[in-house]
Amino acid sequence: MTALFLRDLRLSVRAGGGALIGILFFLTVVAVIPFGVGPDLKLLSRIGPAIVWIGALLASLLGLDRLFQAERDDGSLDLLVMQETPLVLTVFIKCTAHWAATGLPLVIASPLLGLFMNMNETAIGATALTLLVGSPAITFIGAVGAAVAVALPRGGLLVSILVLPLTIPVLIFGVSATYAAVEGPQPFLPPFLILIALTLFFAVLGPAAATLALRNTTD
Predict the structure, then answer these.
(1) In sequence order, what E strands does the chain have?
(2) Which of 43, 45, 82, 145 is most buried when burial is the number of CB atoms within 10 A of its CB?
(3) Contact criterion met (CB below 8 Å) for 117 and 179
(4) Is the pLDDT of residue 81 over 80?
């Protein structure tokens, strides 16, 4: 499992630019917002957490179609399905490696982008914390779409279409927890705990559903 994690981590970084492409897209999405809403610093500060979360969500969708594509291309996907190690555990490890290579850099970059949006220290910290907790859920959800579209030659757009509606609850509670920490009077803990629960829920459901889709694909 450790070898699989390290292998997928290297593949995620190398394939299509990996983390660099995601960070550049994240930066582009956040950087163009001030040009659209104008130089109102108070408005930028108010909408900043939501914009950072939306940018991170869209950037996380990049590369999800390649989660199982390398194994499909070289024929090792059949070996993964037939190996003694449970396929659901293999899928979980692959999702973890993918998030470490593409999602974690977005979390690390979010404080810098928060400065672009004139966010204060509390808002920047809350946004980074909620992204750290919530962004893995996006990868686990994306694994299902990637498994469904793995047999398609150009399934990238299809994966995004399938995954985006399912990630809306993660976005809602991530932004709600951030605003609760910054503005109140709503408490921060309830939406934050729901965000954690969503991540744990999809950490179980996502690999299981992806495993079922992969088995159906290889039959």
Answers:
(1) none
(2) 145
(3) no
(4) no
Q: Where are the domains of the chain?
A: 1-8+17-216
Distance (Å, whole) CA 152 – CA 175 = 34
**DSSP 8-state symbol, 39:** S
**Residue 30 CB: number of other CB atoms within 10 A?**
23
Backbone angles phi, psi at 187, to 5 degrees: -70, 150
Model pTM score: 0.86
- Give dist(CA 38, CA 209) in Å, integer: 44
- Contacts of residue 134, defined as CB under 8 A and 6 or more positions apart, other chains included, come to 170, 173, 174, 195, 198, 199
Instruction: Please say if the pLDDT value at position 48 is more than 60.
Output: yes
Separation CA 17–CA 9 (nearest Å): 12
Is the four-CA dihedral 99, 134, 22, 148 of positive or negative sign?
positive
